[in-house]
Design goal:
Blueprint lengths: L2 E2 H8 L2 E3 L5 E2 L1 E2 L9 E5 L15 E5 L11 E5 L2 H15 L5 E2 L4 E2 L4 E2 L4 E2 L4 E2 L4 E2 L4 E2 L4 E2 L4 E2 L4 E2 L4 E2 L4 E2 L4 E2 L4 E2 L6 E4 L2 E4 L5 E4 L4 E2 L4 E2 L6 E4 L4 E2 L4 E2 L4 E2 L4 E2 L4 E2 L4 E2 L4 E2 L4 E2 L4 E2 L4 E2 L4 E2 L8 E2 L7 H37 L1
Parallel strand pairs: 4-5, 5-6, 6-7, 8-11, 9-12, 10-13, 11-14, 12-15, 13-16, 14-17, 15-18, 16-19, 17-20, 18-21, 19-24, 20-25, 21-26, 24-27, 25-28, 26-29, 27-30, 28-31, 29-32, 30-33, 31-34, 32-35, 33-36, 34-37, 35-38, 37-39
Antiparallel strand pairs: 1-3, 2-7, 22-23
Length: 347
């Protein structure tokens, strides 16, 4: 399927500079452009490529001013990256969706399956499970008893959703994701550790994305809740009874200990660690590998362990590199001071 620059500009409300009849049928990175492809430029680091790219159309920000002649057709928009996302979503929506229940899938007699649902080979749908309209469940995925899944969800192969958990509309769960495994609850005794039954559930609200091999543990009692619009990367651990606020995003290998409350619109870099039973406010940004032992107020931008403001952190990092030399210098000063004291005492 081909689209012209004129059609694309109308869809994303852009301004054309060049041939409005230029057509594209695929996407490409600007440095790997090819005829018939659309690319984008939002990071100034990639500006040199725009002068030689072979892509037929390039999305650019409205403030972009070329320094030399450009062969390709430009579409100027407020935010090139955001406009690309809209086009990619349109492209995905235009793809035909699989439908029907494969003969090798198991669907319990008491399960309720909506319209236009796809269930792949060797998928398992448990007793009293409810699968909403237009949802796709790929092969080898396990849906436990009493699970409720909303409309237009996508569960890739080898996803496991334990019993009674709730998944909203338009959620995406990638391969290896585990929703509703037991929280890490054990009571120490003289003979070891006694398991504490985890009788709660997990609730994923609408438009939640869960990355590959990410785990969201069920609550000890009540629910572990991931609110609407949350986007979680691969290899992330969300512990029992956590609550993650709407539109918060977490990069790979982040870990949230039990009963933590995370606010809305937060951004956590890779390998961020959050202690249990603390509260993180709204719109908190945490740099990669930050370790958070206590609560943080809304609007904070922090990095490090314990977290500190970025300027303070980087100043400290510079000093840390000099610590070995500073230690030697300090010892030498101590020796000189002792020698001076002895000289004064001997006078």
């Amino acid at each position: 399927m081909e689209f012209s620059a004129k059609q694309i500009a109308a869809f994303i409300q852009g301004e054309i500079v060049g041939d409005e009849n230029a057509t594209v049928h695929t996407f490409a990175k600007i440095e790997e452009g090819m005829p018939g492809a659309i690319s984008f430029l939002s990071n100034p680091k990639y500006t040199p490529y725009i002068y030689d790219t072979q892509s037929s159309i390039v999305l650019v920000n409205k403030d972009f001013v070329p320094e030399q002649k450009i062969k390709t057709t430009l579409i100027k928009v407020d935010n090139a990256y955001e406009s690309l996302a809209k086009l990619l979503n349109l492209y995905e929506m235009s793809k035909p969706k699989k439908q029907g229940v494969n003969s090798l899938a198991f669907v319990a007699p008491s399960a309720k399956i909506g319209e236009n649902v796809y269930i792949g080979a060797f998928a398992y749908i448990g007793e009293n499970a409810i699968i909403g309209d237009d949802t796709q469940i790929y092969p080898h995925t396990f849906i436990g008893d009493g699970v409720k899944i909303g409309n237009n969800c996508l569960l890739y192969s080898n996803v496991n959703v334990y019993h009674d958990c709730r998944i909203g509309n338009e959620c995406i769960l990638h391969s290896g994701a585990v929703i509703g495994a037991d929280g890490f609850g054990f009571a120490p005794t003289q003979n070891g550790y006694d398991k504490i039954p985890q009788i709660g559930i997990v609730i994923l609200e609408d438009k939640v994305d869960i990355g590959a091999n990410t785990c969201v543990d069920r609550a000890t009692m009540g629910a572990t809740v991931i609110h609407s619009g949350v986007k979680i990367d691969n290899l992330v651990q969300i512990a029992h009874n956590d609550e993650i606020g709407s539109h918060t995003v977490m990069a790979a290998q982040a870990g949230i200990a039990g009963s933590a409350k995370i606010g809305e619109w937060c951004m956590f870099g890779g390998q961020v660690g959050i202690a249990g039973h603390i509260k993180i406010g709204d719109r908190v940004n945490l740099g990669a590998q930050s370790g958070v032992p206590s609560s943080i107020k809304s609007g904070s931008v922090l990095i490090g362990t314990p977290p500190m403001e970025p300027k303070q952190y980087f100043k400290a990092a510079v000093i840390t590199k000099k610590l070995p030399e500073m230690y030697i210098e300090l010892n030498n000063l101590r020796k000189e001071l002792e020698e001076l004291k002895q000289q004064l005492l001997n006078k």
